[in-house]
Amino acid sequence: MKFDFIVIGAGSAGCAVAAGLAKARIGSVCVLEAGPTDAVPQVKIPFGLLHTMGSKRDWNFKSTSQSNANNRVFNVNRGYMVGGSSSINSMVWFRGRADDFDNWQQPGWRWNDVERDFIEIEKLIQPQQIPTPHPLSVAFAKSFLANSDAPPTPDRESAGLFDTNSRNGRRWSAADAFLRPAMRSHGLQIITGANVNRISFEEGRARHVELVDGRTLSARCGIVLSAGSIGSPSILMRSGIGPAAQLSELGISIKVDSPQVGQNLSDHPVIGVHHEGRNSGYGLVWNQSLQWALSPFQWLTQRNGRLTSNFVEAGAFFRVNPITDDDDRPECQVHFIPYMMGFKGKSITTGSGYFADVGVCRPVSRGSLTLSSSDPRVAPNIDLGVLKEEQDVQILIGGFRRLRELLDKAPMGDSRAPEVYPGAAVSSDDEITEHIRARSGTAYHPVGTLAMGEQGTPVTNTLQLRDVDGLWVADASVMPSITSANTNAPSMMIGHRAAKLILREVKY
Ligand SMILES: Cc1cc2nc3c(=O)[nH]c(=O)nc-3n(C[C@H](O)[C@H](O)[C@H](O)COP(=O)(O)OP(=O)(O)OC[C@H]3O[C@@H](n4cnc5c(N)ncnc54)[C@H](O)[C@@H]3O)c2cc1C
């Protein structure tokens, strides 16, 4: 099987880059996706994410034990299907701050360069609020300004209902926005169940893609790696591009010694607070059985109701440290979920209530990803580096306190419910720190494992792999540092922009 371009991974960025290449009509483009299709109701129905997380459409990775979080192992969920993590995520839509991109300090990636790409992808995504937000989310959205209908923004302290990549009450993933239109109009092809083992080379040029099942595909013009922050560095290392000493130990022959491959892993750490009470948020309780029973009909006939909820319906941004002359950026993001989340083991539980978490917008802790085996069926070691730096812990402590204040202040009326976990007894800095180490998670936003940058970084600012021809990376792994809010829109932007960069450079 021979194509002009092969894109590895049909996720947020992969769908965008593949569509951009196909649209240029310069040859055949094929996307290889390890997982199955996304053609199941639980992916299309926003509330279905409760079912897809942890299912066979999730890679279900685990982190290494995190020494600054009581040696806990964290779930590292990633979409394993067409659409990638945009088919499993909460659909919250944020570009990030302009200075997130400026601070990457990469020519071609400053805000002035990427703003146009965001505008172009948003024409296809049309971010919008969900049709029927829960009244509790509407109440939380008024935490800062009672009369504002605007979504919150990482540009300033604010609260609001989130914009989402949903349309007409259903998920609108990267596959909906980019992949399928390009399949219909521009002959883009996709092969599902195509789990890539490694890339192989001919005369210094990336030429072939070897699948785990033994098939090999070839690319005449180029190969684009869009397997995400976990998948892309893993494939590269299996292909012999990475830290030479580590790869040699695993018996992998070295193509390029690139010590930074897999380093610089960053994610947003979060800590939550649970509220439970009768007549509060969504939950598994008898007095909501009629609404639950009617909800599928509502979704099918009117595309509204509780099944259109993306869970994370509202949120906020705020500071915890005093504003200084050169820094007034919000340091924390809140996700508000008007749904009872369990806190005694299982996240789905009986009872009604609500949950909110607060995360660090720009964490300074860094982790890393290494291979544990040359066998592609063995998961890599994912060290999230959670809370490695004290600065992140301090911001979370301040953020946790301010989150409680916001929840107290929000005009929730009779639906207000008491905090049940961790509860009022956890109030001193030491107690909150203990809670953070015992219960924090991440927002499922790993980025940065193939950061673009100057000499020494794995990828150039035109997204080319250093010291190899015909190989590009286009996904969240190329971010030099994490953006201040959720990472799906920036990942799509990277894919969309990558197609333009590749078309500028490739010989065909
Ligand atoms: C549970 C969850 C909730 C989230 N919520 C939000 C949110 O509300 N808002 C937001 O902005 N962000 C959210 N995110 C993060 C966001 O979805 C990601 O940052 C974004 O999708 C990353 O895009 P990507 O293209 O880098 O990777 P992905 O979208 O993960 O795509 C990678 C693709 O490559 C495929 N792949 C991997 N390895 C191989 C291989 N060996 N062979 C072939 N194919 C392979 C994968 O199956 C996948 O389809 C969430 C993520 C998760 C998991």
Structure summarized in a few sentences:
The protein has helices at residues 12-23, 41-44, 49-52, 98-102, 111-125, 135-141, 174-186, 228-238, 244-249, 289-302, 390-409, 429-439, 488-505, and strands at 2-8, 29-32, 61-62, 75-76, 158-161, 166-167, 170-171, 189-191, 196-202, 205-211, 216-225, 241-242, 256-257, 269-276, 283-284, 314-318, 332-337, 351-360, 368-370, 381-383, 419-421, 441-442, 471-473. The chain contains 13 helices and 23 strands.
Please explain how this structure is put together.
The chain is of the alpha+beta class. The protein folds into two domains: 1-39 and 79-126 and 172-267 and 364-387 and 446-508, FAD/NAD(P)-binding domain, CATH 3.50.50.60; 129-162 and 269-360 and 388-439, 2-Layer Sandwich (Glucose Oxidase, domain 3), CATH 3.30.560.10. The protein is 28% helix and 19% strand. The strands form six sheets. Strands 5, 14, 15, 16, 17, 18, 21 and 22 form an eight-stranded antiparallel beta sheet that branches. A hairpin with a 2-residue loop joins strand 6 and strand 7. The protein is globular and about 70 Å long. The protein starts with a strand and ends with a helix. Bound molecules: flavin-adenine dinucleotide. Flavin-adenine dinucleotide is lined by residues 8-14, 32-35, 53, 77-80, 84-86, 88-92, 194-196, 226-229, 231, 235, 312, 444-445, 475-476, 486-489, 491.
